From TrEMBL:
Annotated region described as Disordered, given as residue ranges: 203-226
Segment forming the signal sequence: none
Family matches, as SUPFAM superfamilies: Toll/Interleukin receptor TIR domain
Polar residues composition-biased segments: 203-217
Domain TIR: 54-180
Organism: Rotaria sordida
One GO BP annotation of this record: signal transduction
Protein name per Swiss-Prot or TrEMBL: TIR domain-containing protein
Amino acid sequence: MNHIRTLTSSSQQDLQLIATALIWKLEKEPETIIKTVQQQQQPSSISSLMIDRKQYDIMISYSHNDKELCHRILSSLEKDQLCVWIDSRLMHGATFDAMAKAIENAEFVLVCMSDAYKQSPFCEMEASYAVKRRCHIIPLVMTTSYKADGWLGVLTSALIYIDFPKLGFDKAYQELKKQIGLFRMNNSNLILAEQNQVHHNSSSLMDSIPKTNSSVENNKEPRPVV
């Protein structure tokens, strides 16, 4: 492990990134997964659902080979007043801790799929971590006729793809907004259903409490004043 730590200071950037990623995976990732499991074991409540507002609406996970289309999507999202995390905003490149925190604090994770994305171990780490955190993932196809396979195919097989090259940018972007809106509507309905259930339980509890018979009290003869 000490040898791997020394490689994080290597003059070769690729070697430096690989060493940093390996240390993060061995040390940091297990800690965050344990925290996730502990949070999931705690009983949910309406207050926790309502208070659990994320710092970011969206985190974009992408290969830099596809940055032109990704930044076009980013620009459109921000025009629609959505708060988006993307690694290009960090002056010295994204650290893995920053990436992990972005995933943990984003309502949606956009997985921008392409062959370059699939081949990148860093993209695989991001996508896998988003799955482990049980994030709401929306897969976006970045390149013409791309079909996800391997680890990326397994990860996204049950999800609805939005194919930007096939649909064209405008139509695909509208579909993306539709998916975001549907998820938020379903989440709001879940909160409303839980609120109604709590109200029903409270009413049932009040009905079960014995009521004082006021008519009996009123029929009692008044005591004489001595």
